[in-house]
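Per your request, structure below.
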């Protein structure tokens, strides 16, 4: 069996690997590292969790052991689709390069530019970034990519889902063609294959068997809920989830609960917190500092329930997660394996429970087809389906309607008069009513401006002809003077 000591890695790297407790490389590591050390481009196809990060981190550190970084010109570049995955790559680099003098910088969104600019100005050997933030630094003139010797694209299939392919193509165009390129993906979509054919030169293609089954240490269970309306179904799923959490009791040390939508993450987190459960959300719309603090609390055991979108399905490495819940079945069957793979790690036992309503039937069929077996069915203890017409008691309360002030008697009378009046009046009647001034109230004298307008109207009839200006409607009680002037030659 191949050992790390057989892979011609830097002795300082081997020392760090031994201290981390690793001796035997995974299949993707055993095949990719020798080709990478030979200087060849590498195309690795393997699922998340198979050790791909070390597959490019270890040869990258070994190759960069010779040389020196220059200001604003990183020597290598690692692209990751999410901030959490980029941060995990940075942690792996710190673990394996602690006995070297190599430097790194992490460029992710949600963090101020100032500290990142300082690191780049000093010069870094390894630049780990998400595509958007990397291009932000480049467009601000703070970064040059002409000195990149090694470029890594990690989780390219995830980048394809997130729409990063145009950014990746642009970044490739900013790097020298003499670079060495490592490209890792879980699947080989047509768009990814097009990029590899364009930017990789005679790559060593390494394809590990697709991870279509979960670990045997994970107990899987599916709970089918009855058909209800959409809003009632969401409430029923929350009730079922709370009942399951209560039934698991002390066996549930901590759990990650996955939702498909960010808004559902927030709603579920607030609902669980309202019912006195220790829960916090994490998704892409939250501030990066809050996301980092939430993950640190979860890793430290200070947070019991992490409500997450798929940003936590890949790249999140918490060894001791006892439970995973799929509040929503994922729309992509591969994501199911990634999600439940957050538990049952390193030989530990874990439990994955999924909730399903009839509308999720197509997603269930895809998952079972991928796994090549049916998911075991279970029931939520003590769950009673609520009537469909009952409003959600644990959803955020609706805003109260503002009461209008009572109308005055005159306004009410005017409104009633409008209601009783015909919907459309003849045009001639409107014109005649507009031409005649309203009668003054009892005991009231007509005002001077109104008298002048009456006199002006009386002079408009010339030779039995009515001027067309008398039919102007919608000007109110005041007619501008320029409309009353005569422009025709006598």
């Amino acid at each position: 069996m191949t050992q790390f000591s057989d892979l011609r890695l830097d002795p300082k790297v081997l020392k760090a690997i031994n201290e981390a407790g690793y001796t035997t490389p995974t299949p993707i590591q055993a095949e990719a590292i020798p080709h990478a050390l030979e200087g060849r481009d590498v195309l690795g196809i393997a699922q998340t969790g198979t050790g791909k990060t070390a597959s490019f981190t270890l040869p990258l550190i070994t190759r960069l052991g010779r040389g020196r970084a220059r200001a604003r010109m990183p020597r290598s570049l690692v692209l990751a689709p999410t901030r959490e995955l980029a941060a995990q790559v940075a942690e792996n680099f710190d673990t394996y390069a602690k006995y070297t003098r190599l430097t790194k910088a992490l460029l992710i969104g949600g963090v101020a530019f100032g500290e990142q600019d300082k690191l780049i100005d000093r010069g870094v050997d390894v630049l780990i970034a998400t595509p958007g933030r990397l291009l932000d630094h480049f467009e601000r003139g703070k970064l040059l990519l002409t000195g990149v010797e090694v470029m890594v694209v990690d989780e390219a299939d995830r980048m394809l889902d997130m729409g990063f392919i145009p950014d990746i193509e642009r970044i490739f165009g900013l790097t020298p063609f003499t670079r060495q390129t490592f490209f890792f993906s879980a699947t080989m979509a047509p768009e990814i294959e097009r990029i590899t054919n364009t930017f990789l030169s005679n790559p060593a293609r390494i394809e590990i068997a697709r991870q279509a089954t979960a670990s045997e240490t994970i107990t899987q269970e599916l709970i089918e809920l009855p058909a209800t309306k959409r809003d009632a179904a969401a409430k029923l799923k929350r009730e079922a989830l709370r009942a399951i959490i209560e039934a698991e009791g002390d066996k549930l040390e901590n759990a990650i609960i996955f939702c498909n939508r960010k808004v559902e993450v927030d709603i579920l987190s607030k609902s669980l917190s309202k019912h006195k459960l220790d829960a916090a959300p994490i998704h892409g719309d939250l501030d990066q500092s809050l996301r980092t603090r939430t993950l640190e609390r979860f890793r430290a055991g200070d947070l019991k329930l992490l409500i997450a979108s798929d940003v936590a399905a890949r790249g999140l490495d918490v060894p001791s997660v006892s439970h995973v819940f799929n509040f929503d079945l994922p729309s992509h069957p591969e994501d199911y394996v990634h999600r439940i793979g957050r538990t049952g790690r390193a030989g530990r036992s874990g439990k994955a429970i999924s909730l399903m309503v009839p509308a999720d039937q197509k997603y269930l069929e895809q998952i079972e087809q991928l796994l090549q077996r049916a998911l075991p069915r279970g029931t939520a203890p003590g769950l009673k389906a609520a009537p469909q017409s009952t409003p959600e008691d644990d959803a955020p309360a609706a805003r109260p309607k503002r009461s209008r002030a009572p109308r005055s008697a005159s306004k009410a009378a005017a409104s009633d008069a409008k209601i009783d009046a015909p919907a459309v009046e003849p045009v001639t009647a409107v014109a005649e009513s507009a031409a005649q001034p309203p009668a003054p109230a009892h005991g009231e004298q007509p005002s001077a401006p109104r008298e002048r307008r009456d006199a002006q109207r009386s002079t408009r009839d010339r030779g039995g002809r009515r001027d067309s200006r008398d039919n102007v409607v919608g000007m109110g009680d005041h007619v501008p003077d320029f409309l009353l002037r005569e422009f025709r030659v006598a």
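Confidence is low (pLDDT under 50) at residues 385-398, 405-435, 458-470.

Regards,
D.
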